[in-house]
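Design review, sub-item: ligand-bound model
Attendees: FS, YL, KQ
YL presented the inputs for the S-adenosyl-L-homocysteine complex:
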Amino acid sequence: MWRATVLTIFPDMFPGPLGLSLAGKALAAGLWTLDAVDIRAYASDKHRSVDDTPAGGGPGMVMRVDVLARAVDAAAGANDPRPRLAMSPRGVPLTQQRVAALATGPGAVILCGRFEGVDERLIEGRGFEEVSIGDYVLSGGEIAAFVLLDACVRLLPGVMGKEASGAEESFSHGLLEYPQYTRPQLWEGRSIPSVLTSGDHAKVEAWRRAEAERLTRARRPDLWAARLAGKREKPPTQRSKKPRGDG
Ligand code: SAH
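KQ shared the predicted structure:
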């Protein structure tokens, strides 16, 4: 079973949106588990403080390494196989490829920052990888954790109705998805492209392919360039690295 542990000072936010719809049904069905750990429960002073002023001065507060480490150690021991991810705008950008890899693993331990972020020593000392959901700054890591978890959970076996719908959508082939239509056939003078109602599956496939390529080129030249670069790469050589028949 895929296990998610979220470290947060707002455990009441969870499961939140993940308790509804696809993810919520999967949670109820036991296809994954979600444990929201209250970081504040690991504070040591009577005010239960989790943050302090930044070393070197400057605005805001920083989450304390000692409090965070106690929370992490209680929630995920040294032998816990799950990847440790700290949500952070400085992190490696989250991609569908990464999401798919996470979904095939044992789950994730997710640290949600607040204030100016977390003491750097926690990241190093407890082996966290910083992950970003995009180039903008949120007020806390919880919404980023929702994004990451939602993207992972929908890929877990048995969660999505049609297994196939995951394989065809945006990013899975380095392309954005083609435009979709459904009834009515005619709406405010706009009709569904006739090829889609022609019944000719090969033509439908070709149209979708061309549209996916057109949209990717126009909207995401970065994805398009990466795709072309990938195609230019030579297939791995058949020759073994070790010289054969030595001796
Ligand atoms: N001072 C930090 C921003 C702190 S925002 C900086 O400039 O890098 C507070 C918390 O919100 C962060 O610790 C992180 O957990 C979360 N957060 C903000 N933006 C995020 C993003 N784009 N992706 C993931 N987490 C984010």
